[in-house]
């Protein structure tokens, strides 16, 4: 009798423990399923050619590893890249990377001889696309290109000389609007082009005659809604007015008279992007502060 009671008690105790275990497991799994996991997406940028001979800025997903990301970017610059409708890479499909070395922010990338197997008119564009694409990584401050171990100092067909270390000073989508060798200023201006209902940023390096400072040149040139003889457009219109601006060290402050005058609402991210990046690529500024009637509305850092 006593033995039966003990067994019965053990049975119910075991049953209760089992039920509690099942309920606990269900609760734990339910809680785990409700945990929100955030995935960080790393973006790189490639510059691909359109049918108007402009290199357009295109974002792409890259790896967490810089070396792997560089290889991914170069592969997307090849002419057999069919991922983007109406755009194409310039590197011959048989271009190979022999080695990549990054030291103190300078990347040395060694290609095989196929990298410049293009016609003379595209040689400079090839360098522009490589340099600007690689400099989209914040870790990279300069580019050295070698071919089979030999430093590329002169483009063989166009005979264009290259700097020892290539930076954005090399330019992209170059436009020469000069009539004198005096007072030549170089600025990079970010416009946009629409292709297949998608807007792409288009940096243009313009060389012009002007005695104005670069900030004024940039704003004045970005206000042109349409560039003559091109299909490029600007996010800024003629209504934009800057009350004042100043550059202190590496910081530029722009005080707009009235943001609503040219956006009809809060300042658009596209407007911030084109102004800030035009200033970053044209000057040594690393921060741009946007104000409207002396009130800070946005801060953009390089």
Topology at a glance:
Elements: H1 2-33, E1 42-49, E2 55-62, H2 66-76, E3 97-103, E4 106-111, H3 120-134, E5 142-147, E6 150-151, E7 175-177, E8 184-195, E9 198-209, H4 214-222, E10 242-248, E11 251-256, H5 260-263, H6 269-282, E12 287-292, E13 295-301
Parallel strand pairs: 4-5, 7-9, 11-12
Antiparallel strand pairs: 1-2, 3-4, 5-6, 8-9, 10-11, 12-13
Question: Could you explain the architecture of this structure?
Answer:
- The chain is an alpha/beta fold.
- The chain has two domains: about 40-170, no CATH class; about 175-300, no CATH class.
- Helices cover about 30% and strands about 30% of the residues.
- It has six helices and 13 strands.
- The chain has helices at about 1-35, 65-75, 120-135, 215-220, 260-265, 270-280; strands spanning about 40-50, 55-60, 95-105, 105-110, 140-145, 150, 175, 185-195, 200-210, 240-250, 250-255, 285-290, 295-300.
- A hairpin with a 2-residue loop joins strand 12 (about 285-290) and strand 13 (about 295-300).
- The longest helix has about 30 residues, at about 1-35.
- About 25% of the residues are buried.
Our estimate of the beta-strand percent is 25-35%
Total count of strands: 13
Order of helices and strands: HEEHEEHEEEEEHEEHHEE
For the residues shown, what is the average pLDDT?
A: 83
**Given the structure, what is the number of helices?**
6
Unreliable segments of 5+ consecutive residues: 1-10, 19-40
Distance between the termini: 84 Å
What is the rounded Rg?
28 Å
The neighbouring-strand order within the major sheet is 3-4-5-6
Coarse shape:
globular
Classify the secondary structure makeup into a structural class: alpha/beta
Q: Considering DSSP H and I runs of 4 or more, what fraction of the residues is helical?
A: 25-40%
> How many domains?
2
- Major beta sheet, specifics? 4 strands, mixed
């Amino acid at each position: 009798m006593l033995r039966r009671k003990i067994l019965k008690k053990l049975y119910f105790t075991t049953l209760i423990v089992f039920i509690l275990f099942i309920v606990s497991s269900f609760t734990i799994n339910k809680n785990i399923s409700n945990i929100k996991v955030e995935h960080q997406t790393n973006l790189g940028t490639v510059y691909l050619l359109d049918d108007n001979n402009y290199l357009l800025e295109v974002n792409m997903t890259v790896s967490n590893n810089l070396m792997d990301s560089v290889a991914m970017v170069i592969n997307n610059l090849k002419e057999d890249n069919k991922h983007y409708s109406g755009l194409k890479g310039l590197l011959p499909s048989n271009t190979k990377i022999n080695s990549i070395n990054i030291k103190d922010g300078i990347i040395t990338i060694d290609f095989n001889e196929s990298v410049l197997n293009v016609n003379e008119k595209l040689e400079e564009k090839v360098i522009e696309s490589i340099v600007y694409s690689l400099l989209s990584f914040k870790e990279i401050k300069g580019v050295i290109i070698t071919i089979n171990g030999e430093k590329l100092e002169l483009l063989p067909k166009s005979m264009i000389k290259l700097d020892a270390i290539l930076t954005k000073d090399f330019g992209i989508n170059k436009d020469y609007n000069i009539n004198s060798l005096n007072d030549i200023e170089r600025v990079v201006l970010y416009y946009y082009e629409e292709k297949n209902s998608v807007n792409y940023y288009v940096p243009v390096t313009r060389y012009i005659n002007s005695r104005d400072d670069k900030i004024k040149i940039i704003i004045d040139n970005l206000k042109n809604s349409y560039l003559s003889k091109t299909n490029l457009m600007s996010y800024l219109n003629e209504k934009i007015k800057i009350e004042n601006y100043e550059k202190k060290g590496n910081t530029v402050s722009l005080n707009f008279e009235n943001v609503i005058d040219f956006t009809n609402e809060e300042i658009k991210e596209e407007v911030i992007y084109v102004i800030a990046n035009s200033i970053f690529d044209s000057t040594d500024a690393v921060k741009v502060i946007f104000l409207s009637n002396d009130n800070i509305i946005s801060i953009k850092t390089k």
